[in-house]
Structures are given as C-alpha cells and as structure tokens.
Design brief:
With 311 residues, the protein is of the alpha+beta class. The chain has one domain (2-308): Clavaminate synthase-like (Double-stranded beta-helix, 4-Layer Sandwich), CATH 3.60.130.10. Helices cover 29% and strands 26% of the residues. A six-stranded mixed sheet has the order 1-2-13-5-16-3. The protein has a four-stranded antiparallel sheet with strand order 4-14-7-12. It is globular, with a radius of gyration of 20 Å. The two termini are 27 Å apart. It holds the Pfam family TauD. Belongs to the gamma-BBH/TMLD family. Keywords: Dioxygenase, Iron, Metal-binding, Oxidoreductase.
Length: 311
C-alpha cells in the first residue's frame, strides 16, 4: 500500500507507485481525495487516459435499476479481466472508492495474480497449459442499434455513457500468452464476454477441459484460497492493477440502510505509456544513486512487442 500524499509529494513517490504496479501488478493507494474524477487526476500524473470509447474517461460503478451490465448491479462479479474484446486490451485499471457506507453489507473486492495461477497450471497440468496458450478464445461486446433506442448519443444532449450504444467489438486470443522466451506476459479471462469458440473440431474438447481446469485453479482450489486477496475498499482508497496480469472480482452486496451507497469510479491507462513513464523514472533513479549501470536490468515482458530490453 502507499499513501496519496507520498505519491504527489515527489518524483520518488511517483516512481515507487509505478514500481508497485509494474513489478507486483497491484497497489492500493490510501487517503486519496473523496471527490469525483480525482481518479483521472491521479492517473494523469502517469499518462493520458486510454480506452475511453465505451465508458468515457471516467466510469461510475454503482448499482442501478434495469442495468444492462452486471457491473452496475449488486450481484457478484467473478474474477475477470476488463475489455477483453479490444485488440489492445487496457494495460492498467484504476478503481477509486468514493463511498462504501457502513450500511453496505458485502461487496468486498478480490484480486488474484493470474500469472501465478497460469504458472501453477503449467506446473500441475502442462497439457492444459499448452492448450490455453495455443487455442484462441473469442471475446466480444456486440450490441445492436435498437438495444436502447431512447438513449441519447454523443452530441445529442444528456444520456448514458457510450457503453449503452451500439457496438461491435470482437477479438480472438489465447487465454494465456507467452513471449519468445516462454515467459507468461498476459492472461485474459472474462467469461461474461466470451463469444462462440471458432477453432478446429479437434481442439474443442481439449480447450474446454483445459478451461475447466484453469477455472478451478482461480476460483475453487487451494491455490485460490491461498492467493486471492480480499479487501473491502474504503472511501478514499484507490486500487491500481495490471489488467493483463491481475484478475479482479466483487462479492455480492446489499443495502441494509436505504441511504447507504457503494460508489466507485474507474479509468484505464495504456500499458506502453505506463511502462515508458516507469522506465524513464527508473533510469533517473539509477543515475542518481549509481546502484546499477543501466545494462544489468532484467528484461521486461509485455503484450504487443513481447519481450524487449528495459533500457
């Protein structure tokens, strides 16, 4: 965990914040301002907001009547990645808690390192691991133009976020992606947004067998019990995590008090820009303290250009 004041106080604080996110995959920041859109202000210290087409630069996570997205209900959200139907899946997601009143029963956030889960699958069932690295799953968000006919569109006055508009986003990729050295660089897991499996017939049964094996590891195994972080976000706390590495979930909740509310705001950042900012600050750190010469830094892995030298 880090404190908001430490992050904004100095370049060193910003570097440490990025180091947590890049190296560990998750950082929870405490004592952030409890004001709307402050998640954007903090994220913008790193880079411009990305992936704003569907949900806007800042999106609200609240329970509402007649929701068209399970995130906007009080139901349980199982472990998943966000926006898997993009060709360029968001690298980092920030979720800022504005309210989580005492009258809210349940609703704990959950986080799981999917790289560790994938490695566990690799060690315990190499055949299933190979299948999930090779066979592409289909992820989609397809919504017809008449799904919400009374919703205003951009430029047409007040209305709901663009997530309620017509969209056709489809991407295919294996659940587990490796770099040229065989290292795990991305895990994409989002059952609610899976489309029809479009693979050769002989891959269908092995795929679903491997799928069930991995799902058991992350949801119901001894590994899941030991490695899942359960945390009730408090107002002013911000969860920052690598969306290609850390799966997130939410327990079901209910309002015991009619005035109680659970309200989070979120945003996304591009992984290339986060990594670039981190490496620039890291190089400055090396030059200041002389701890390394810049050539001994380990390689870093990311989707897109796979594995490249850090500097």
């Amino acid at each position: 965990m880090m404190n908001y004041k430490d992050i904004i106080a100095s370049e060193q604080g910003l570097y440490q914040w990025l180091e947590h996110q890049v190296e560990k995959g998750l950082c929870i920041v405490q004592d952030c301002p409890k004001t709307e859109n402050s998640v954007k202000e903090l994220a913008s210290l790193i880079s411009p907001i990305s992936h704003s087409y569907l949900y806007g630069e800042v999106f609200d996570v609240v329970s509402e009547a007649n929701a068209v997205n399970i995130a906007y209900t009080n139901l349980r959200l199982r472990l998943h990645s966000d926006l898997p139907y993009y060709e360029s899946v968001p690298g980092y997601q920030y979720l800022h808690c504005l309210r989580n009143d005492a009258g809210v029963a349940g609703g704990r956030s959950e986080f799981l390192d999917a790289f560790a889960a994938a490695q566990h699958l690799r060690d315990s069932d190499p055949e299933a691991f190979e299948v999930l690295c090779r066979v592409p799953a289909t992820f989609q968000k397809v919504r017809g133009p008449d799904h919400t006919p009374n919703v205003a569109r951009p430029g047409e006055g007040e209305g709901r976020p663009p997530a309620y508009y017509a969209s056709h986003l489809v991407a295919q990729r294996p659940h587990i992606e490796l770099d040229t050295y065989g290292e795990i660089v991305a895990v994409t897991w989002s059952p609610p947004f899976e489309g029809v499996l479009q693979v050769p017939f002989e891959d269908i049964k092995p795929y679903y067998a491997a799928y069930r094996r991995f799902q058991a590891i992350i949801e119901s195994s001894a590994f899941a019990s030991e490695h899942t972080l359960h945390h009730r976000l408090a107002p002013g706390e911000l969860a920052c995590f690598n969306n290609r590495r850390v799966l997130h979930a939410r327990a079901a909740f209910e309002y015991r008090d009619p005035e109680a509310r659970r309200h989070l705001q979120g945003t996304y950042l591009n992984s290339d820009e986060v990594l670039s900012r981190y490496l620039v600050l890291k190089q400055g750190q090396i030059e200041r303290d002389g701890s390394e010469d810049g050539t001994s830094i380990k390689f870093t892995a990311r989707v897109g250009n796979k594995t490249i030298p850090m500097l």
